[in-house]
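Troubleshooting entry. The earlier prediction with 5-O-phosphono-beta-D-ribofuranosylamine gave an output that would not parse, so I re-checked the input for stray whitespace and re-submitted. Clean input:
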Amino acid sequence: MKNIVILISGGGSNMVALVEAAQQQDWPARFGARVAAVISNRPGAGGLERARALGVPTAVVDHTTFAGREAFDAALATEIDRHDPHGQPALLVLAGFMRILTPGFVQRYEGRMVNIHPSLLPAFPGLHTHQRAIDAGCTVHGATVHRVTAELDHGPILAQAAVPVLPGDTADTLAQRVLAQEHRLYPKAVAQLLAQRAGAG
Ligand code: GRF
C-alpha cells in the first residue's frame, strides 16, 4: 500500500477534497494508495479537526518551536516518514501549506511532492495572487498543480484550471471561484499521478 501524506497550515479545504476523493473513489483498491496522515505546521489549523472527522490520523510539527528552517524541516521529515512502514511515503501533497521548504527537504522528496498554487503559473508565483491578477487587469485566472522543486512555485506543471475574472471581482470573490476549481483539480491530478504509478507497477 502506497502512503500519501498531506501537509496543511490552515482550513484544509483542499485536504478535505483529496481525502473525500480517496474514500469515494476507493484509491486503496484502484491505486493501492491511501491517505496515511495529515500533518500541520500550525497547532490551531482547522484542517486538523476536519481530517480527524474523516478518520485520518493527524500530527503537528509546530514551526514556531524550532530555531530555524533546517531544524523544522528535519523534524517535519521525521514525522512524515513515521507514517510509512518503509520510511518513505509515496507521495507528499502540500495543500494550503504555507512554509517555504529548504532545498535539502525538497531534495529528499523530489519526484514525489506536489503542490497547488492559486494562479495560472508561471504567472503570479508567491503570495496575494488574486489581488495581483485583478490589479494586472487579467480576464482569466486560476490554479496550478505542480511538482515541487527547490525554486518556489516553479516546478513542472501537472494540471491547471482557469476561471474568469469578472467585473467588480474582489480578491475574496475571485479566491472563492478559484478555490472551487482547486477542489476539483487537485483530486483529479493526484489520482492521475497515482494511476500512472499503479500502471508503472
Ligand atoms: C488556497 O488558496 C490554495 O490555493 C493555497 O492555500 C489556500 C488555502 O487552501 N495553496 P486550503 O483551504 O487550506 O486547502
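This one parsed fine. The domain at 2-115+145-157+183-199 is CATH 3.40.50.170 (Rossmann fold).
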